Structures
1.
Amino acid sequence: MLKNFTDSVTFKRGLTLKNRLFMAPMTTKMSFYDGVITTDEANYYGLRSGGVGAVITAAANVQEDGKGWEGELGVYDDRQIPGLSKLASSIKKNGTKAILQIFHAGRMTDSQILRGTQPISASSIAAERPDAEMPREMTESDILHLIDSFKQATTRAIKAGFDGVEIHGANTYIIQQFFSPHSNRRKDEWGGTLEKRYHFIDAIVDEIIDTVDQSDVENFIIGYRFSPEEFENPGIKFEDTLFLIDKLSNKGLDYLHISLNDYNRKSISPFYQDKSMLEYVYQKINNRVPLIGIGDVRTLKDVKNVLANADFVAVGRSMIIDPHWAQKILDNKESLIRTSLSMYDREELFIQDGLTEFLEFMMPERLKE
Ligand SMILES: Cc1cc2nc3c(=O)[nH]c(=O)nc-3n(C[C@H](O)[C@H](O)[C@H](O)COP(=O)(O)O)c2cc1C
């Protein structure tokens, strides 16, 4: 089927997007210390909404001990619902849909951010990064509690008026930590073989689907994000990811979302050098569930290239720099897109210091004095 980025598309659970463009989930580091959204943060999203079919929010932690950084959005307490509701309405402009990304940082945090609490993970293995702290291995009851927290977060997203949740199984956070042979060295039913390392993902997806099905919400979608491979040894190999995708494609999710910084990127595995990872993944899915492609999309040409191997396109950094990026693409006004960011633009774009520091790391070449 020939796809056009302007097509409207209806998901399995009935939600219709007005086009194939998503704003990618990107942390803003703007929330209050207790995970409650700030007015600037709502304005940040409002400014970027209206053109894209849907906005996926920054990762929101489902438990207090899942907080990965200061300024993170929280969805672990009912008192966060009014702020989340404000966030959903700031996004739901001009038909754009609002998806809340839900996550737990696992070992990718520290006891300072957790105010003295030791981080938790599948096993007691520190991440391979400078100053990484040793996490505490989760007990069986911690695992069941975490699954329940993801369910409760989904219920809060429904109450707050979101159109869906995205399960954040990517970027080395706790769901990925259960799938990774680096961070998961368990010998019980939650670890060991590839199949057992998948068990936690399987359980979370089933429970979230069940939560949505049991509620009376209509057209509420569920997506799942994954990273294609890890550099660590042992670590997730691209082959493991193809196994994961095969499983997830049959689960009744509304979409899968790959995490890539460059849509053309090839695997580090010598066995998968013929195509980009995006193309291998799309072929593996084989139309069983829609796929969101991503990775340094800046132009209409990039959008079309991604759509050759995906059903939707998510755009991150380009939409930080130009909040009206999607509308300009839709209006065929590509030449008007802002391509770099100066410190003088930041106030108008609602970009605060925490995000600026992150951008200095994530896109130094697109920042100017
Ligand atoms: C500032 C910033 C914050 C991010 N925060 C998240 C996040 O909260 N959740 C997530 O899944 N990915 C996050 N990402 C990754 C993006 O979703 C995306 O995969 C990445 O930026 C590549 O897309 P792009 O080239 O269009 O920016 C973040 C990226 C940036 C630049």
Note: Residues 24-27, 58-59, 101, 168, 170-171, 225, 259, 261, 294-297, 315-318, 358-359, 362 surround flavin mononucleotide (CB under 6 Å).
2.
Amino acid sequence: MEKTTKGMSRRSFIGMGAVAAMAAGAAGLAGCAPAGGDSTAKTEDGGHIESAGSSAPSDVHIHNVTDTSWMTPPAEVTDFAKEWDCEAVVCGHGFAGITACRELAEQGKKVILIEKQPEDTYAAVGNEFASLNAKILQERGVPHIDPVEFYQNFMKITSNMPNPTLVMKFAQNSEENSNWYLDRLTEEDFATMTTAFFPPTEHQMGELSGIKFWPSVCSFYGECNQTKIQMYNQAAAEEAGAEFHFATTAEYIIMQDGAVAGLVASDADGYIKINCKAVVCACGGMGGNPEMMTYFMPDMAQALTGEDALTSMSANDGRGVQMAYWAGAHLETTPVAGMNMKGLAVPGKMNCLPQAVWIDENGRRFANEYYPTSEQRGYQTVFMSRKTKYAVVDNNFTEYRQYTLPQHAGFTANEENIASLRDS
Ligand SMILES: Cc1cc2nc3c(=O)[nH]c(=O)nc-3n(C[C@H](O)[C@H](O)[C@H](O)COP(=O)(O)OP(=O)(O)OC[C@H]3O[C@@H](n4cnc5c(N)ncnc54)[C@H](O)[C@@H]3O)c2cc1C
């Protein structure tokens, strides 16, 4: 028997829905999902009382989703140490920011990118990305994906909730954009790139009850990592005329007569006024801001019990969303999609359990253990008591464990991993 642990909690995080199509690499369990839990399993139930006829905890308390101090803009800055001019400012050097900056520069716009982190310690987040039909994948024999089929599958597994235009845009442009993003990599760089779950292991599956899975990620766990690739894109943007300022933080957008007129930023010297016509808010998510997570994920926030917490591996504080909101942008009203079961951390959280037979504290089976690991499957914790759950296996475990799906935080059933499983 293997106990669930609450160790996942600190390492769960928010991300983009697009990652649902990706899967993982090193040492069997991988990807950007938590790859393990604390070895100290929490066995007490934390004092929760179950209500009769229901396995849901009865002491669910409502978190205050009306705590909205982040909606208030900061006081206007009038004293500036510097003033810059350009057409567009990009805030954030992450995947969204660096690609927006390069694109704008290549279109001939005068663009400035500002990034909060210092240049010498700057690091991109994550290692691998989902790609439909990138040239490098096709060359290596990774199966071609029909963008429309991908779109239909995506909408199906997300209950038709996402913005369909965005999902289709991703599906139809993934090939071209992946090739563009990777166009400066050398052969040596590509030599360190792998594709999780490809080539497939002997009993790897591609479908579960009508839901499709594709092994189609560009995994950069080697010498060429995402930081290096972002820097290649920075070089391309610089060649096209873009300017970069690290250790510079976006504060708020200056609006004039309902239109963007500039951005207030800050660095070690003080405030900077940047006069421009457009601002790209690419400051990442809000995983470092519990108040905003509570507001944007009320479904999770209101399911929290005494020991639960919304946690994330990200330090981003939601400033990009705040700046857009203060400037008049409309906030999405549906709960925000979050990765790894929306960052909910509970003692009975199950995303590290292997595919075996799962039972609850009463010995009852309660879920389809095969369902995609960390995202959808973990969500079922919400409906359960917070008591320890168990994965029951027999001596044939290492045999049936070979029937796997290529999925985020999935298991690569190669000989080495199976042997290590047998040992453990
Ligand atoms: C630990 C971890 C591992 C992950 N692994 C993967 C993976 O393997 N594959 C995958 O597809 N996804 C992964 N994800 C999710 C993925 O990293 C995010 O979806 C992606 O980084 C989002 O891109 P972005 O450009 O919107 O934001 P980010 O990449 O977070 O970039 C935002 C940038 O803005 C900067 N910034 C923030 N505030 C300001 C400000 N006020 N002014 C200026 N700059 C600011 C930040 O420092 C940061 O550099 C992972 C996430 C985490 C947290």
Note: Residues 1-62 have pLDDT under 50 and may be disordered.
